[in-house]
Design brief:
Length: 312
């Protein structure tokens, strides 16, 4: 889901044809990182080049056949009377696809990992003790998907005893700023109700993230959906097999079937009593729609959703 939601949102805005999206996700992922510690630097350069070439072609198409999308808009727009150069159009698309896809995806994955590591925080969020907006900010601070940014110093200055000369290239570590004990109480604690939370995950100043509102909306939507639909979360457990390599099941400690219970359940099958005391309006509506007549065994949950359980 983390791979799909941000990708679809930004690809819808750019009107990237559905058939190209998977390839773009792969290119965007390998442009900025690698799944392997031995990942080759040249692979990421190739991916970046391919993304640029992809948008070069897409922009050329949109110039002749414009639509109601951001790529077409960039080819038509005028800034102080002048159109954007071809390079500016392509580089804007490049920033949008990398910014719009990778960062939010990693915030979502990292956010769920943090909830797994901090079950009390997940319980508090499930119970409705924490507002989604506040939780989103803590997920952003905690994960800091964009670890650093580069800047060129515009003037000589001294910062915390370090002398920086005009023209020096400086690396700003957002990840470090987000754990600054002078700015955050207990910076190494994941606290969903943290306020104030003046994190720098979206940077600061003139290059403040263009997609901050979209990213916040996406992370908030996923958190609310998790709260709505997921009773328990547990780390994926590797299959015991010397033939198949997979993570097919989630442990659900204490739950029915224990080792074989998937963590995702249909709405209305929550086990946390605090959640039952404080259901949200959306949850009440979805429970009214989806409450099953009888509690089916879990593997029949799909059948229940399709109205085929209990059998008549
Ligand atoms: C959790 C999600 C996100 C994080 C952590 C994030 C982080 C950042 C950061 C740190 C910067 C500043 C880079 C710099 O200082 O050089 C930035 C800029 C930018 N972001 Fe995001 N971003 C996120 C989501 C998005 C989304 C969803 C979009 C697209 C809709 C987007 C598009 C951009 C663009 C175009 C810029 C360049 C802005 C400029 O240079 O003026 N970002 N982002």
């Amino acid at each position: 889901m983390a791979g799909q939601l941000p990708l679809r949102a930004i690809c819808d805005l750019l009107d990237v044809p559905p058939g190209d999206r998977r390839r773009l996700l792969d290119m965007a992922s390998s442009a900025l990182g690698s799944d392997s510690e031995h990942g080759l630097r040249q692979d990421s350069w190739v991916s970046r080049g391919e993304i640029l070439l992809y948008f070069c072609d897409l922009a050329a198409q949109r110039r002749v056949d414009p639509g109601d999308d951001i790529v077409s808009l960039l080819t038509r727009i005028r800034v102080q009377g002048a159109p954007l150069s071809g390079e500016e159009v392509i580089l804007n698309c490049y920033s949008l696809i990398l910014g719009g896809d990778e960062t939010t995806r990693l915030a979502l994955v990292g956010g769920v990992a943090a909830l797994l590591d901090n079950p009390a925080q997940w319980a508090a969020y499930q119970a409705g003790d924490v507002a989604t907006g506040t939780a989103v900010e803590e997920v952003l601070r905690w994960t800091t998907p964009t670890l650093h940014a580069g800047r060129t110093a515009g003037q000589d200055l001294t910062l915390h005893g370090h002398h920086i000369r005009a023209g020096d290239v400086v690396t700003l570590w957002n990840a470090s700023a987000n754990r600054d004990e002078r700015a955050f109480d207990e910076p190494d604690a994941f606290r969903l109700d943290r306020t104030p939370n003046r994190h720098l995950s979206f940077a600061y100043g003139s290059h403040f993230c263009l997609g901050a509102f979209l990213a916040r909306a996406e992370i908030g939507a996923v958190l609310e959906d998790l709260r709505e639909r997921v009773a328990e979360m547990a780390p994926a457990q590797r299959l015991y097999s010397n033939f198949l390599g997979a993570w097919p099941r989630c442990r659900s400690p204490g739950g029915p079937g224990d080792d074989a219970t998937a963590a995702v359940r249909p709405p209305g099958r929550r086990v946390d009593s605090r959640c039952r005391r404080r259901p949200s309006a959306t949850r009440r509506r979805s429970r009214a729609r989806a409450r099953p007549a009888a509690r089916p065994p879990h593997r029949l949950a799909g059948a229940a959703r399709r109205g085929r359980w209990p059998p008549r």
